Amino acid sequence: MEKYYDVIVIGAGHAGCEAAHAAARIGASTLLITMDMNKIAQMSCNPAIGGIAKGQIVREIDALGGAMGHVTDATTIQFRMLNRSKGPAMWSPRAQCDRGKFIWAWREVLENTPNLHIWQDQVRRLIVEDSPGTQGSLAKTRPDAQSPNAETHLEAQSPNAESSSVCSDCVATKTAVGVETYLGMTFRAKSIILTAGTFLNGLMHIGRVKLPGGRCAEPPSLELAESIAQHGIRVARMKTGTPVRIDARSVDFSLMTEQPGDTEGRKFSYYPFPSPASEGAASFGSNKTSYNVIHSTSSLQGVAGESCGLPSLPCWITYTNEAVHERLRAGLPDSPLYNGQIQSIGPRYCPSIETKLVTFPDKDQHQLFLEPEGTNTNEYYLNGFSSSLPIEVQIEALRLIPAFRNLEIYRPGYAIEYDFFDPTQLHHSLESRVISGLFLAGQVNGTTGYEEAAGQGLIAGINAARHCTGQDSLVLQRDQAYIGVLIDDLVCKGVDEPYRMFTSRAEYRILLRQDNADARLTEIGHRMGLASSERLYHYLKKKEEVERIIRFAEDFSVKMGDVNALLEQLGTAPLARGCKLRELLGRPQISIGNLAPALPHLRQLIDTIAKRQDEIVEEAEIQIKYSGYIAREVEQAEKMHRLENIRIRGRFDYSKLQSISTEGRQKLTAHDPETLAQASRIPGVSPSDINVLLVLLGR
Ligand SMILES: Cc1cc2nc3c(=O)[nH]c(=O)nc-3n(C[C@H](O)[C@H](O)[C@H](O)COP(=O)(O)OP(=O)(O)OC[C@H]3O[C@@H](n4cnc5c(N)ncnc54)[C@H](O)[C@@H]3O)c2cc1C
User: Fold this and answer.
1) What is the three-class DSSP state of 241?
2) Tens of pLDDT, residues 213-269
3) Are residues 334 and 405 located together in one domain of the fold?
4) Is 435 exposed, middle or buried (0-12, 13-18, 19+ CB in 10 A)?
5) Residue 133 belongs to what domain range?
6) Has residue 454 been placed in a domain?
7) Packing angle of the helix pair 68-75, 450-468 (nearest 10 deg)
8) pTM over 0.85
9) Which end of the chain, N or C, is surrounded by fewer C-beta atoms within 10 Å?
10) 196: Cβ below 6 Å to ligand 1?
11) Which atom of ligand 1 is nearest to the CA of 40?
12) Minimum-distance ligand 1 atom for the alpha carbon of 215
């Protein structure tokens, strides 16, 4: 049986769910094929969304009109804003979620998304054909560039505009046209998004036991990776691991430290009530294919609401000890990580407990967090104890921790090895440079983490839909979004270990805050047809109120007599003369909240904000306090945009440029960057190599 769609998404993990939701919502008829509908958006490892830098990504997904924020809010059982003691660039929201309800909330979203069909099955093979007009030819021209007038052909782009990443000089010789499944179905589509996660040739390890699988108790995807790699897409292997799941009835909680969530009712989504009127848009495909665009009802209505309604549950802290370490060390000869059974590279920042022992032999304890998996289950996740040691070693070692003396577990920790594809063979749109119409997102691109996967999925979903109608791709810049940083890093630098996001990866951290993702991305999401008009209006109202406070702070003069007593109380110097409110708010001890009682006009202004008062005041305060840093980063970003606007792909034969370093030549040839800015970010390409290119371009 054969069926036709605009977009096919393979895999309903975090990348696949966002991809399918985005593509369908902007009007593409979309098919989501996944192995098991009851495992949609399964959190393979810890049941938590967000965290440092990852929380910013979730806010970005939400601002663009994606669903991860709403699903998280609907299923949160503990919320914490991490790094509150540091500057706002470092604040990162994190939510512990009910694992089971998370799956069902996502299912509800997907099952109620117009244009989206779900098919439970396993994809066996990607169907690929020669691209029209490219049979047998080298579909790539590399003119002898360096013409003195070369720059006159360069197209200037507005820094914040969406730009096409489809290289005009570089046409893939192959095109993905469909998939075949194990149930004997053939589905054809204009765009295909692969989001198969850890399932491609997945092999699980527990001690010396090896089991083929994509995740605990789930089969691997065995033929698909080969059907893709045979066309020239480079494939390699990585590994990851997960800890034991514990039965709470066997735990002595009185011997652990309770870690409660924040008491303030924070959440991920900027937009609390997806309205029945719309979360879709009409602009897509208007000039090419006429999609049957439906202004969809966001199906999370009735799931999310203002707050999720689930009780807030604490996490618990305990520690390993020397006895535990001794038992674990005795098991090392059977550890697949140390007996040669596992060769591939795992996430350095998420080490197994055995790796921690080997790397830090002098540490006599390691912190463990016992995290609830949901409101109506006894299952707990033991964060910090990822392991692939034999089952008996894991249990015996844990029973040497006082709180776990009578420990019973539901399942052991394990490691898994899987295939991923070299992301340097992607365009920034996440379309393959080797097979056109094939988009890749998530773990298959060498990343790790739900949020990293979801961010890529959203971009792949938008661009796959736009590909169907020949529209330019959405490419987020490094100063616009962590998602932009993530994709740019993948494409320009590639990966040699599972890539996870950190704030340190972003050079414009003060611009990419969790509080302002709506300001950065809502309008783009709306233009893409994903963020509804209501969402845009909701953001514009906030913007207006924030600007009102900022204007007030710039204009309002503070008199010494009104504030000096308060300033002394707050431990900051009294004023020697009057000053503008804005100046006073620059002091670290001062906030709008603690000044308001002394300044009735300020109090009155705040009282006029009927809704989202805390969010709006906080946003205005951050913008006022950090205006100097923000302006500096904007200036730096503008400088980088000048390089970003200089397109170089196809303009040089790098092998012939003797004035460039040998490493620079090799790296530029291998990566073939689209712009000069991308070239400057490739490891091994030096600033003097960039200067040579600038000179050759006549700049
Ligand atoms: C054991 C383990 C431990 C992990 N530990 C961590 C960690 O500590 N920290 C961290 O950040 N991340 C961890 N991860 C990774 C995290 O789970 C992934 O980064 C994230 O889930 C990736 O999302 P994804 O959408 O790319 O893929 P997944 O969530 O893996 O989803 C893939 C989906 O594709 C489907 N699928 C696969 N092949 C096919 C096919 N041929 N046909 C149809 N459907 C298919 C699967 O059924 C699944 O629904 C771990 C993963 C595992 C398995």
Assistant:
1) strand
2) 999 999 999 999 999 999 999 999 999 999 999 999 999 999 999 999 887 777 899
3) yes
4) buried
5) 2-242+264-309+418-528
6) yes
7) 140
8) yes
9) N
10) yes
11) 49
12) 53
